[in-house]
TrEMBL record:
Pathway: Cofactor biosynthesis; pyridoxal 5'-phosphate biosynthesis. This is Pyridoxal 5'-phosphate synthase subunit PdxT. NCBIfam families: PLP_synth_Pdx2. HAMAP family: PdxT. Pfam families: SNO (PF01174).
Amino acid sequence: MLTIGVLALQGAIKEHLDRLQSLPQVKGILVKTTMELEDVDGLILPGGESTAMGKLLREFDLLEPLTAKIKAGLPVWGTCAGMILLAKSISGQPDNHLGVMNICVQRNGYGSQLDSFSVNTVLPDIANTPIPLVFIRAPYVESVGQDVKILAKIDDKIVAVEQDNMLATAFHPELTSDLTFHKYFADKVRKAQTA
Protein backbone atom coordinates (compact mmCIF):
# COMPACT_ATOMS: atom_id res chain seq x y z
CA MET A 1 0.00 0.00 0.00
CA LEU A 2 1.38 3.38 -1.03
CA THR A 3 0.80 6.45 1.12
CA ILE A 4 0.53 9.58 -1.00
CA GLY A 5 0.09 12.90 0.76
CA VAL A 6 -1.65 16.04 -0.42
CA LEU A 7 -0.18 19.26 0.95
CA ALA A 8 -3.20 20.56 2.86
CA LEU A 9 -2.44 24.25 3.42
CA GLN A 10 -4.59 25.80 0.70
CA GLY A 11 -6.09 24.92 -2.69
CA ALA A 12 -7.68 21.91 -4.42
CA ILE A 13 -6.97 19.46 -1.60
CA LYS A 14 -10.15 17.38 -1.41
CA GLU A 15 -10.26 16.79 -5.17
CA HIS A 16 -6.77 15.25 -5.20
CA LEU A 17 -7.60 13.17 -2.12
CA ASP A 18 -10.76 11.87 -3.82
CA ARG A 19 -8.79 10.83 -6.92
CA LEU A 20 -6.14 9.07 -4.79
CA GLN A 21 -8.84 7.14 -2.90
CA SER A 22 -10.05 5.82 -6.29
CA LEU A 23 -6.70 4.13 -6.99
CA PRO A 24 -6.05 0.55 -5.89
CA GLN A 25 -3.33 0.05 -3.27
CA VAL A 26 -3.09 3.79 -2.57
CA LYS A 27 -3.92 5.61 0.63
CA GLY A 28 -4.25 9.38 0.43
CA ILE A 29 -3.50 11.51 3.49
CA LEU A 30 -3.45 15.21 4.29
CA VAL A 31 -0.06 16.75 5.07
CA LYS A 32 0.17 19.89 7.23
CA THR A 33 3.10 19.08 9.53
CA THR A 34 6.67 17.77 9.30
CA MET A 35 5.53 14.64 11.17
CA GLU A 36 2.87 13.93 8.53
CA LEU A 37 5.48 14.58 5.85
CA GLU A 38 7.53 11.71 7.32
CA ASP A 39 4.61 9.30 6.71
CA VAL A 40 4.33 9.71 2.94
CA ASP A 41 5.90 7.84 0.02
CA GLY A 42 5.00 10.69 -2.35
CA LEU A 43 3.42 14.14 -2.15
CA ILE A 44 1.07 16.22 -4.30
CA LEU A 45 1.31 20.03 -4.18
CA PRO A 46 -2.21 21.07 -5.27
CA GLY A 47 -3.46 23.99 -7.29
CA GLY A 48 -4.39 27.11 -5.36
CA GLU A 49 -2.66 30.43 -4.83
CA SER A 50 1.12 29.98 -5.02
CA THR A 51 2.02 33.12 -3.03
CA ALA A 52 -0.33 32.12 -0.19
CA MET A 53 0.93 28.54 -0.26
CA GLY A 54 4.56 29.67 -0.19
CA LYS A 55 3.80 31.89 2.81
CA LEU A 56 2.01 29.04 4.61
CA LEU A 57 4.89 26.63 3.90
CA ARG A 58 7.14 29.09 5.73
CA GLU A 59 4.67 29.70 8.58
CA PHE A 60 4.19 25.95 9.14
CA ASP A 61 7.99 25.44 9.06
CA LEU A 62 7.56 23.05 6.14
CA LEU A 63 9.59 24.85 3.46
CA GLU A 64 13.07 23.62 4.43
CA PRO A 65 12.09 20.05 5.46
CA LEU A 66 10.07 19.63 2.25
CA THR A 67 12.90 21.01 0.09
CA ALA A 68 15.33 18.59 1.75
CA LYS A 69 12.96 15.62 1.25
CA ILE A 70 12.49 16.42 -2.44
CA LYS A 71 16.25 16.81 -2.95
CA ALA A 72 16.69 13.44 -1.22
CA GLY A 73 14.32 11.82 -3.73
CA LEU A 74 10.75 12.11 -2.39
CA PRO A 75 8.44 11.83 -5.43
CA VAL A 76 6.47 15.07 -5.73
CA TRP A 77 3.85 16.31 -8.18
CA GLY A 78 2.89 19.97 -8.43
CA THR A 79 -0.35 20.95 -10.19
CA CYS A 80 -0.81 24.59 -11.27
CA ALA A 81 0.29 26.54 -8.15
CA GLY A 82 2.26 23.43 -7.17
CA MET A 83 4.27 23.80 -10.39
CA ILE A 84 5.13 27.38 -9.35
CA LEU A 85 6.19 26.18 -5.88
CA LEU A 86 8.63 23.68 -7.45
CA ALA A 87 10.16 26.08 -10.00
CA LYS A 88 13.75 27.31 -9.67
CA SER A 89 12.65 30.63 -11.12
CA ILE A 90 9.40 32.55 -11.55
CA SER A 91 9.33 35.04 -14.42
CA GLY A 92 9.39 38.62 -13.19
CA GLN A 93 9.98 37.66 -9.55
CA PRO A 94 13.32 37.83 -7.72
CA ASP A 95 12.59 34.92 -5.38
CA ASN A 96 11.19 31.39 -5.55
CA HIS A 97 9.57 28.98 -3.07
CA LEU A 98 10.99 25.42 -3.03
CA GLY A 99 13.26 26.13 -6.02
CA VAL A 100 13.99 22.48 -6.75
CA MET A 101 12.92 21.99 -10.37
CA ASN A 102 15.01 23.22 -13.28
CA ILE A 103 12.24 25.31 -14.84
CA CYS A 104 11.25 28.96 -15.20
CA VAL A 105 7.48 29.50 -14.98
CA GLN A 106 5.18 32.33 -15.97
CA ARG A 107 2.45 32.81 -13.34
CA ASN A 108 -1.11 33.28 -14.65
CA GLY A 109 0.31 32.61 -18.09
CA TYR A 110 -3.18 32.11 -19.49
CA GLY A 111 -4.69 35.27 -18.02
CA SER A 112 -7.56 35.58 -15.56
CA GLN A 113 -10.16 33.14 -14.23
CA LEU A 114 -12.31 34.07 -17.26
CA ASP A 115 -9.61 32.72 -19.57
CA SER A 116 -9.88 29.21 -18.09
CA PHE A 117 -10.30 26.46 -20.68
CA SER A 118 -10.23 22.72 -21.24
CA VAL A 119 -8.76 20.56 -24.03
CA ASN A 120 -8.60 16.84 -24.79
CA THR A 121 -5.24 15.67 -26.06
CA VAL A 122 -2.96 12.63 -26.33
CA LEU A 123 0.23 12.78 -24.26
CA PRO A 124 2.37 9.93 -25.65
CA ASP A 125 4.52 9.61 -22.49
CA ILE A 126 1.43 9.39 -20.27
CA ALA A 127 -1.45 7.82 -22.24
CA ASN A 128 -2.29 6.69 -25.79
CA THR A 129 -5.87 7.97 -25.63
CA PRO A 130 -6.92 11.62 -25.32
CA ILE A 131 -7.19 12.90 -21.75
CA PRO A 132 -8.92 16.06 -20.52
CA LEU A 133 -6.67 18.93 -19.42
CA VAL A 134 -8.32 21.73 -17.41
CA PHE A 135 -6.53 25.09 -17.17
CA ILE A 136 -7.60 27.66 -14.54
CA ARG A 137 -5.50 30.84 -14.31
CA ALA A 138 -2.75 28.43 -15.23
CA PRO A 139 0.99 29.04 -15.37
CA TYR A 140 3.15 27.66 -18.14
CA VAL A 141 6.84 26.79 -18.33
CA GLU A 142 8.84 29.48 -20.15
CA SER A 143 12.05 27.48 -20.26
CA VAL A 144 13.53 24.22 -19.04
CA GLY A 145 17.03 23.46 -17.84
CA GLN A 146 19.12 20.34 -17.65
CA ASP A 147 17.46 16.94 -17.04
CA VAL A 148 13.92 18.26 -17.55
CA LYS A 149 11.71 16.22 -19.88
CA ILE A 150 8.83 18.03 -21.59
CA LEU A 151 5.68 15.88 -21.39
CA ALA A 152 3.14 18.24 -22.95
CA LYS A 153 2.80 21.47 -24.92
CA ILE A 154 -0.41 23.32 -25.76
CA ASP A 155 -0.09 26.02 -28.46
CA ASP A 156 3.71 25.88 -28.16
CA LYS A 157 3.55 26.51 -24.40
CA ILE A 158 5.08 23.88 -22.11
CA VAL A 159 2.40 22.67 -19.68
CA ALA A 160 3.78 19.41 -18.23
CA VAL A 161 7.34 18.48 -17.27
CA GLU A 162 9.23 15.83 -15.37
CA GLN A 163 12.66 15.87 -13.76
CA ASP A 164 13.94 12.89 -11.77
CA ASN A 165 11.50 12.45 -8.83
CA MET A 166 9.46 15.55 -9.75
CA LEU A 167 6.39 15.97 -11.94
CA ALA A 168 4.68 19.30 -12.67
CA THR A 169 1.52 20.12 -14.60
CA ALA A 170 0.01 23.53 -15.37
CA PHE A 171 -3.42 21.92 -15.57
CA HIS A 172 -5.72 20.28 -13.00
CA PRO A 173 -6.24 16.51 -13.49
CA GLU A 174 -8.01 16.43 -10.11
CA LEU A 175 -10.91 18.47 -11.55
CA THR A 176 -11.83 15.71 -14.00
CA SER A 177 -12.89 12.12 -13.40
CA ASP A 178 -9.90 10.93 -15.45
CA LEU A 179 -7.34 9.14 -13.27
CA THR A 180 -4.53 8.90 -15.85
CA PHE A 181 -2.19 11.41 -14.21
CA HIS A 182 -2.85 10.17 -10.67
CA LYS A 183 -2.06 6.62 -11.84
CA TYR A 184 1.09 7.90 -13.56
CA PHE A 185 2.23 9.61 -10.36
CA ALA A 186 1.38 6.54 -8.22
CA ASP A 187 3.53 4.43 -10.59
CA LYS A 188 6.36 6.97 -10.20
CA VAL A 189 6.07 6.65 -6.40
CA ARG A 190 6.03 2.85 -6.68
CA LYS A 191 9.17 2.86 -8.83
CA ALA A 192 10.94 5.12 -6.31
CA GLN A 193 10.16 2.56 -3.59
CA THR A 194 11.83 -0.25 -5.51
CA ALA A 195 14.79 1.82 -6.76
